[in-house]
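Forwarding the complex inputs:
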Amino acid sequence: MATLVENGVNVEQLVGTVNAIKGQPGIARFKFRTTSQWGGGAKSTASVKSFYGAGQEDASRTQTFRLEGDEPPVLLGSNTAPNAVEALLAALSGCMTVAFIYPAAAEGITVHELSFAIEGDVDLQGFLKLSDRIRPGLQSIHVTARVKADAPRAKIQALLDHAIGTSPVMDSLKNGVPVSVHLAE
Amino acid sequence: MATLVENGVNVEQLVGTVNAIKGQPGIARFKFRTTSQWGGGAKSTASVKSFYGAGQEDASRTQTFRLEGDEPPVLLGSNTAPNAVEALLAALSGCMTVAFIYPAAAEGITVHELSFAIEGDVDLQGFLKLSDRIRPGLQSIHVTARVKADAPRAKIQALLDHAIGTSPVMDSLKNGVPVSVHLAE
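Prediction (whole assembly, two chains):
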């Protein structure tokens, strides 16, 4: 029997994964990681390789992914890489993509195009502590989704609403996450 | 007169920027952007170039930065790039770097090494809607900072606390951001 693949997603594996988690919920717990190194000025490099999930340390990755950060000159950097807020918005776009495509695949809806245009507003008076009334973080994020799929608009809107409600990065940004910071010896 | 540079940061420009914002607070308002394209399966590419800040559209960038996203095989991807949660943690590390280094430079504290090891916990039962009690987002984020600097540990801790309190990505994650999503025609 042929493997059912929709939108580039192996639907049999997706259904199998969901059923495996139903039988053994602990395998759904994942720990993702990064380690960064400062590179002078505004520059940093974050490395990503190991993670824990499905009950074990992952062994599938043979390469380390590196994500560079910098600032533009107006923010005292040298424009070698996106800044952290831009990287955050990019992470949101990647998460919304998966949170849209997987359920669409599971429902047998072919998607032809999916893009997210995202804008985030920040007032650097917060970062610079020039005002107690202005937060350091983003004041708002606006996402515009563009979708071409073999489904009526109401169904596409329902898939988009599902993605908004299930995307880990979207939920983390909308509702916040407890963060602890520890200074190593 | 020589330009004062500390930690690779032009301190004169930093002080000048702060003073300019004090005189004209509107220039502190920035809008950062990304536009993503789905690439089949779990893959997406986010492009970053334009932003608004300091009262105008930025014209300094000649290149577009591209940030790739994917998933590992256990999450139905093909391991070509970090996933969105990993990218989120990387963004946090880059933001904490800048939020630590700039104030250190302004205070004349030489930093030799700065790294952040970050781990985030997620239970995919939330993403898969297998439980109403488990959120889709990260349940916690743990950051370990390693710093070598010409300052006593108490001062390094104070700089770290300052970074925690002023990093835009840290504040966005800890306290949440209003997000609106619109489906284009």
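Chain B touches chain A through 123 residues (CB under 8 Å).
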